[in-house]
Amino acid sequence: MTSKWKRSERVQIAVQKSGRLTEHSLALLTRCGLRLTQGADELLAVAENMPVDVLLVRDDEIPGLVREGACDLGIVGLNVAEEQRLGLESGQPAPGSIRSLAFGDCRLAMAYPRDGEAQKVSDLEGLRIASSYPRLTGRFLTESGVNAEVVPFSGAVELAPRLGRAEAICDLVSSGKTLAANQLREGETVLESRATLLLSPVELPAARKDWVDLLRRRMDGVMQAREAKYIMLHAPRAALPVIAELLPGSEAPTIMPLEGREDRVAVHAVCRESVFWETLEALKDAGASSVLVLPVEKMLE
Ligand code: PRT
Ligand code: ZN
Is the CB of 172 under 6 A from ligand 1? Predict the structure, then answer.
């Protein structure tokens, strides 16, 4: 496909090719306005309407690509970004983690065999901990003042204790089902993780930087709109101070008169935090009626 944009203008974004972050990452880019078409080699998706290419790679490759400037932006779990950052030599520039994205939630946590000798980090002195995140694990042990051996393990870490390779593990957990199925008990949290947006430390040509900034602003907008709700209701004029207090994370609601009703007004507000049933019930108790909660599609400030 020929393009009206110069090669040097095109922003390169690294995204996981196939895994837990893929669908959400591509959906986020689509919500930022990119119309993506997959290339024949399946390693590249090209935006038709903006100078943006999406490189589809293994998640472990993403921090390196962004660090070296082969990609300007990358979307990867904070766990992967932090593990690799700890492996850099001092003074080596790391990609900046510039925004937390609202998906890929998990935690890197210690886990102990239910019937094992170690049940907490202080029991691990002189013992072995298997992990695919040896640097984060090592840092946690050091910070906990424990001298123990970290056994690097790639894949199926939860089997390490049964294989006699370690007395505890440090692994990613989301629901905890995998730990439970392997008779492991979750212990201390080493890192709370979610998908994060990485920015290259390599300086960008001006034209490309403008597009990177535009994408960053749109991602901010998508993230804000995700939680935001538009609330409409009718309320007694006298209850307005109480109602305004109850609207979560909203500034200056719009107040409008209701035809033929001196005592009641219409209130419209954007709420930036989750609106729970409890909030709606409290609004009703304060005299509100005809309460409507609508999703917000886009936000630009
Ligand atoms: O092929 P590639 O190298 O790109 O992918 P990958 O296999 O290394 O990564 P992938 O797709 O499994 O995960 C990508 C990212 O998703 C991780 O780096 C985390 O940031 C995030 N994430 C979120 C998770 C989980 N949740 C998760 N539950 N990554 C892995 N898991 C594992 C967990 O360790 C357990 O083994 O999934 C299993 C199920 O978890 P439970 O707790 O629900 O049982
Ligand atoms: Zn990986």
Answer: yes
